[in-house]
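dude i think i finally got it to work??
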Amino acid sequence: MRAEDYAPLVAMELPYPYPSGHVLRSVIILGALCLLSRNWFLRASSLAVLIGIATSRVYFGVHWASDVVGGALLGAAGLLWGFSGKRV
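look at this
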């Protein structure tokens, strides 16, 4: 099939690519899961899923690597802010 004949069902314009929202939310949710859990398997699998999400954003060309790093740093800052008063 030629590119001219292909019409996508959903065409999305992404006006705000920085930071990656997927990575930001994933760091907050999976990071909170890691901080609240004592299970090593759950922590390791959360880290593996987070790495998979971050690499998939770059691999599929949705974000640049800097967008992913920015989302991860912003998510980590939010996670630290949210858990700053809690002892883990």
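The radius of gyration is 16 Å.
im so relieved honestly
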